[in-house]
From TrEMBL:
Matching NCBIfam families: PRK00132.1
SUPFAM superfamilies named among the record's database cross-references: Ribosomal protein S5 domain 2-like
Gene Ontology BP annotations: translation
UniProt keyword list: Ribonucleoprotein, Ribosomal protein
Gene3D superfamilies in the record: 3.30.230.10
Source organism per UniProt: Arcobacter sp. AZ-2023
Family: Belongs to the universal ribosomal protein uS9 family.
Protein name in UniProt: Small ribosomal subunit protein uS9
Compositional bias (Basic residues): 114-129
Length: 129
């Protein structure tokens, strides 16, 4: 089958994902998963979750380009993109991935700062007198 493209998003991070038949290679920004994330094992597991759930770790090759946000948001964007690419690759994966919440875009983002406040909701200390 030909290459399949999907986009994943989280906060301000975007992941462009290309998926094709292969032997289980995963490349993120031209690096392997271990080079890209280093010692962050829990985040590595989050990136690989769609492949473990659908049992496709060793049957597809994935190329991911990420931009924006931090490494955690980029990893979640990559997870979302990989999930969407798997569904585009084979529609039967939808029934496997959907109950795990892997196809839902996490829309939470940073709340904007309000005037008169130190941050979005933090106020100065209250003075009784």
């Amino acid at each position: 089958m030909a290459k399949v493209y999907a986009t994943g998003r989280r906060k301000t991070a975007i992941a462009k994902v290309w998926l094709e038949n292969g032997n289980g290679q995963l490349s993120i920004n031209g690096q392997s998963l271990d080079q890209w994330l280093g010692g962050h094992d829990s985040i590595k597991k989050r990136v690989m979750q769609p492949l473990h759930v659908s049992k496709q770790e060793s049957s597809v090759n994935i190329i991911v380009k990420t931009l924006g946000g931090g490494y955690s948001a980029q990893a979640d964007a990559a997870r979302h993109g990989i999930s969407r690419a798997l569904v585009a690759y084979d529609e039967q994966f939808r029934t496997i991935l959907k109950p795990h919440g892997l196809l839902t875009r996490d829309a939470r983002s940073v709340e904007r700062k309000k005037y008169g406040k130190k941050k979005a909701r933090k106020s100065s200390q209250f003075s009784k007198r």
